[in-house]
């Protein structure tokens, strides 16, 4: 099975995840990929705004920081 954008085959893990979520195989976005730094930062900001004292906001922020390669300053 190839990815919707024609970039090659999608993984077995991706096919299983799409089937479990009821998504079409032609969906453009990969659901098993790790979010980018910008996406983590945006998610963390949204969580902090919606739930300022929530434990999941702290977890998302911590995960975002762990996503940085060593020696690279956050932006």
Give a quick set of tags describing it:
48% helix, mainly alpha, 75 residues, 2 domains, 3 helices
Describe this structure in words.
With 75 residues, the protein is mainly alpha-helical. The protein has 2 domains: 1-33, no CATH class; 37-66. The chain contains 3 helices and no strands. The mean pLDDT is 77.
Number of helices: 3
Percentage of β-strand residues: under 5%
Shape: extended
Order of helices and strands: HHH
Helix residue percentage: 40-55%
The number of distinct structural domains comes to: 2
The profile of the biggest β sheet is: none
Radius of gyration: 16 Å
Any low-confidence stretches, pLDDT <50, length ≥5?
none
Which structural class best describes the helix and strand composition? mainly alpha
* Number of DSSP strand runs: 0
- The chain-level mean pLDDT equals 77
Distance between the termini: 37 Å
């Amino acid at each position: 099975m190839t990815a919707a954008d024609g970039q090659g085959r999608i993984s077995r893990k991706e096919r299983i995840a799409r089937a479990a979520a009821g998504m079409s195989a032609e969906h453009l976005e990969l659901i098993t990929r790790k979010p980018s730094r910008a996406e983590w930062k945006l998610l963390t900001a949204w969580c902090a705004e919606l739930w300022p004292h929530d434990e999941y906001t702290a977890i998302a922020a911590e995960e975002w920081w762990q996503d940085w390669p060593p020696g690279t300053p956050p932006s």
